[in-house]
Every structure is written in C-alpha cells, then in structure tokens.
Specification:
alpha+beta, 21% strand, binds guanosine-5'-monophosphate, catalytic activity, Histidine triad (HIT) protein
Length: 118
C-alpha cells in the first residue's frame, strides 16, 4: 500500500490526454472511460483526477466527489444497459488485485446467468 505515486502510470497519461481512451464522462473531479479488457460489456472505470495511488491516500473531498460520481455514472449505465446487477468496486495495493497505481473505481454491469469475463 505504501510507496511513491508514479506520475507516468497509464491512467495519469490518460488523464493528461497523452494516451487515448473511450470517454464516457468527465468533469473537474473525475474522468470515466471504458475498460480496455472489460470483465463484462459496459465495464467502465472512474478515475479521480487527484494524484493518489489508492483510495486510502485520497483527500476526503476528492474521495467524496469521486464516490458521488461513481453512483451517478452507475445510474447512467443502469439506464443505458438495463443490467440485472452492477458491481461497484476498487482495489488498493497489488495483493488486493490492483494493477494500475492511480486510484480508480470499477463499474461492472452484471446479467443473470452470464459469468464474469464472458
Ligand atoms: P485494477 O488495477 O483495478 O486491478 O484494474 C485496472 C484496470 O484497468 C483493468 O480492468 C484493466 O483492464 C484496465 N486497464 C489497464 N490498462 C488500460 C488502458 O490502457 N486503458 C483502459 N481503458 N483500461 C486499462
């Protein structure tokens, strides 16, 4: 969980516009885009603009703003895709499953009877 924030991580580059993404939402607090290896159709990532490795290192205000946007974007995904369920999750630290070390939230639509990754 501890360590230095790397300003050249892949999501930092996407936030700066140095790498492309399929954008679904943006404002002063977050950028949301499609996951390049979706676990299910409609898998969206919400990336806070704050330079933090994980959620535990975020300032309270930035975390509050991000979580509110996760909720709003998840509701937009719900309206658009009519899934049977939606996973909202995020991972902190490599042993927890984190692979990109700029804090981000997953929005993963779920359909009855369809396995993750299918
Ligand atoms: P985590 O760190 O929470 O385990 O997951 C990182 C997520 O970012 C993965 O779901 C992976 O598919 C996604 N990802 C990794 N690199 C890129 C990229 O360059 N573009 C996009 N859109 N998604 C990425």
């Amino acid at each position: 969980l501890d360590g230095q924030y790397d300003p050249d991580n892949i999501f930092a580059k996407i936030l700066r516009g140095e790498l492309p993404c399929v954008k679904v939402y943006e404002d002063a607090h977050v950028l949301a885009f499609m996951d390049i290896f979706p676990q299910a159709p409609g898998h969206v990532l919400v990336v806070p603009r704050e330079a933090a490795r994980n959620a535990l290192e975020m300032t309270d205000g930035a975390l509050q703003a991000a979580i509110l946007r996760v909720k709003r974007i998840a509701n937009a995904v719900k309206s658009a895709l009519r899934p049977d369920g939606i996973i909202l999750t995020q991972f902190n630290g490599a042993p927890a499953g984190q692979t990109v070390f700029h804090v981000h939230f997953h929005i993963i639509p779920r359909q009855d009877g369809v396995a993750l990754g299918a």
